[in-house]
Amino acid sequence: MERSGAIWIGSSEIRGDGIERPLPLVPTGAGHVAKLDLPAADRPGYYRGYSNSTLWPALHSLPERMSGSEEDYDSYRRINDFIARAAFDVRDSDAFWVHDYHLLPLGAELKDLGIERPTGFFLHTPWPTPDMIECIPNHRDLMKSMLEYDLLGFQTNWDLNNFLACLRTHFGLESKDGVVTTERGQTRLQKFPIGIDAERFAAYLAADLSPAEQEEVSSLLQEVQGAKFAIGVDRLDYTKGIDRRVEALNELLKKEPQSISLVQIAPFSRADVDEYQNYKEDVENAINHVNDDHGTDEWKPIHYTNESFSQAALARLYREAHVGVVTPLRDGMNLVAKEYVAAQDPKNPGVLVLSKFAGAAEDFNEDEALLVDPNDPKEIADAISRAANMPLEERIERWRSMMDKIESYTIHDWSADYVRELDKSRVTVPADQCLILGRGWTNVAQMPLYRNHAGALATYNEIDSADVALKEVARADEKKAYEALEARLMHTQGRLWDLGIATASLSGRSEEEPGAGAD
Q: Could you give the domains of the chain?
């Protein structure tokens, strides 16, 4: 953002009054950041309610964790409308890139306001099967809204194929070459597996820590000094499978006493959601049970903290850990898996134990990570034991293969690929279909008509071959062709947009949500 000149719109922690104000843009390098004070009246239903008590568990295929109300859904839609109206201030941006499940209908709200720029959406979480989606109240309305985007991005093929299955099951829609056509127009669907900046993460190993954090890291490492240890780093969230991981360690220590300990870093989040408070109590009770049963005066099986650590501190802990345990029940990607690999010593790397239901498992195969069923504590226990006792040659071979993949597709590649595909999503339709498609009319030629009039019609191959008459007029008389086309596009608020220089990126994540490692 700082380099590209993009505008990042997110939410602050301040409860607002709902009154519309100019977008509070703050310069950041070449770009800008705007933090919106979401209306206090709707924020609980939007964030704690529909986003995190309804959508979050459903998207992770955990219907038993779902709760919420119709009022929550109403708040969710009103907040999306509020954000869209705020974003209207930057309507001349090149494109809008919307992030995550908090903002599923935002593209439709932007189009309702007459914003004709390309809009793209990227889902950081998984997308579940059709029967699971059916558990979500108003799921049809949400999916219709999502088809207002020009580009929909998913983490994995699994997520993409599930979304396509939902379109077939609930709407009878099929895709052709990754494109779904509706009355609005066309929506492109594609996989974009998010990566990390491996070079930057490796540099964290040499970065200075604050005195307080240095003391905390040193204390943790001193507690496990001289023994093998595994590390888990997750938000304290029921989708992360921490309780099963603790149970797995219990199983392992029954067979192999004092063979390995676990450092579990689990920052507490969403404290105002009952399911999270209950899960915290369950996890901590399980940890106390394992420590009581298997610990001694000199040795503790599980070292557990709710503290948050910087990336530099985590890099040090990852490097020292013999095993990285990433076992979510379901995850969009889970960047902790990639960060653990990136932090390893090439001459003596650790081993990654990875849930087969994490998006990262689509990147790393069974010859690289040890893939496990996160619901099976015994399978996790066996994998941790195997990882802790794996020969050096095999560890290096597995690590090198994963590291090559991480370095070959970074977060910068991910971002560039998405923006490139969003630009391609400006699909062309015959001119006589413009009124039918209404607000969704876009053009892969990037609408150069504002500056170059109908010369573009004579030179761009993307013009529909059926519209021969208009092309012939363009060759003969550019001015008349421009006027004719302009008349057909009156639904675009009586003007043709000239492209700006910036991309507006809208995020549904609040500041309390960590970036790396989270869905």
A: 7-195+414-441+500-507 (3.40.50.2000), 198-408 (3.40.50.2000), 448-496 (no CATH)
